[in-house]
Amino acid sequence: GDLNRVHALLSLLVRDYALSPLSNHRKGGLIGLAAATVGLVGNFVVFLPLIVPPVLRSFDDTDSRVRYYACEALYNMAKVARDDFVPFFNDVFDALCKLSADVDPNVQNAAHLLDKLIKDIVSESPHFDLIEFITLLRQRLQVRNPYVRQFLVSWIAVLDSVPDIDMLEHLPEFMEGLLSMLSDPNRDIRQQADAALGEFLGEIKHIQRTADTEGEIVVPFDVEKVVWVLVERAQHSDEFTQLTALAWLHDFVGLFGNQLVAHFDHFLDAVLPCLSHPNQRMSQVAEGTNRTLLSLDTKAETFDVVATIRVIKRHLEVCTRRAPSEAETSTTGRSHRSGTPHSDYSDHSQEGSPREQQGSLERTWLEALRWLSVLLDRNKNEVLSVLDDLLPLLFEATADGSEEVVLKALEVEASIAKGTSEFQRLVAALLDRFRGERGSELLRQRGSLVIRRLCALLGASKVFITVSTLLVREQDLPFASTMVQALNLILLTAPELKQPRDCLKGVYDLVRPSDGNSKSTSSEGHDQGQRDDPVELFESLYRSFSHSCCAVLSLCIHAGAYAHACEVLDCLGTKLEVTSNQLLELDRLVQLLESPMFVGTRMRLLDPAKHPALCKCLYGVLTLLPQAKAFQTLNGRLASIPSDVLARLNELMHPASAKKHRDRSLTRSKDTGGDRESGIHFDRLLHVFLTCQQKHVKLHSTQAWE
User: Fold this and answer.
1) How far is CA 341 from CA 233, 354, 368, in A?
2) Which of 276, 292, 490, 674 is placed for a possible disulfide with 364 were both Cys, Cβ 3.0 to 4.6 Å?
3) What angle separates helix 549-559 from helix 562-574, to the nearest 10 degrees?
């Protein structure tokens, strides 16, 4: 009977006072409920459903004193009920979350005391429902109020410290909320969130240390979800957030190793932009993570090579200032569970001139190219399947990157071109990059570096023969002429082209009569194990070099085909209309003849009787030149030749001697079973030169009329 009377009394306090429209009545009702709680220690639990809801309702009261007395009343109830108070935890937690941001400091202090008591009760209770709490926590973590954030972080830290509660299991649910607090303007909140994250990372490392050294690390949470959160936050605009997320990624790769291969593209997507971050600490952590990623097994079945290539491609596009296509955007804009999010480069990479932007992203550019090279070694077929998309980006790097980026891009291109079909595609695509106004600028500034490096990586003769074959079919005559002049200069001066230069000197022995001195230094390069056929190389280059009279003449003079050079000059003077462009090319030829590369040729002028065709060739050039600086230079060079030898040049070049040599060459060709094994068809080559130059003369005349 006493319980019924108590129930009636408590109902009266709730109905007529705690829920009264008058604030003074509400205060009195709350004080009465608090007093009744103290007096009902033994039988208090049965009345909790009656008195707790109206007290919680008072937390929303507009009168701060009412809210204060509500905290006091609930404190007394919780202190008496202890574990029996846990069923009301969700409602109490929600109310405390609001009160933590109360404008009245007295209410805040009262709420703080109540919060501390509730934490003690939850820590000791075996009936606490952690899953329901995590749901509440995830919802409240979106609030930006600093007091609420401090309140939430404190609860995470307290529950994590309880041995019987495993907060690590639910880390993916509140990981993003904690990371978001790292960018809070309040320093205390940042420190508390960082400390909480540090505790969780320490727990993960402890699991790794205590795990079987030969087995995989098993953690109680979904690693994939955490990785996604970290990847997203590693691209955050706030440096502290970005650095913390990146440090977690670094530790994850070190802890889990090949267990994370399935998420490789996510990691790479987060790491690449951070490599170019102006914050030194950030870039150092990114470099460490990148090195660790290199050790992962990218040949594993779970490794998504297509997604990884897509990530590399997108970062190359950013570095080269190429916007991703719509198709790529739709492909890569996948959900968190099925793909990689777009990288969000820091604001520093979006400002300044294009050249400054490229410079600021150089490390990202280099590492993206390095990863492409790694994938070519490990997963070549998959890379080659998207070659058409990658080649333009590689050529952009070749055109706009720093020297280090250019060299790395060329290494990747060389790795691609190891196959025959890919080699042809690469060379053809490279030639196309040299077209147009921008291509001409690229050829002028970096053409020599690009071609020389590819020759060093792929073989000089192979590169030059392939390029020459393509230029023979070239319909754009000015472009072909420009390319040939550039190739000619590279051939004669670049150290990477020593092998084909030495090979071409073998032509000299084929066109000279055999004598005791035939084993001259000119053939040493060919004799030292060279496998290139000098005839094949000479004829291949000649057909494309016919677009430039300077290139053909320098090729013939370097190879020792002096008699044919005379025929070319005779063709220029009698069968072709000499244009201003051809005169400029002859001027460049004189400059080349004075270069160190033609020292051997100039030395042969000391024995004009033995090399009459060379003397006649040079005099032919002199005759075609206008009396300008080039004329004076060459004339001074030829003035040292004895006049009596000059008078006998035609006698020394008697047709019978030439016929004898041609007969011997033809006989030697027949003995070996074919024309091209040892003989050069100069008549056919001269026809090629004449036909090609006639096209240039016709084009020059047409342009002059226009």
Assistant:
1) 11, 25, 17
2) 276
3) 160
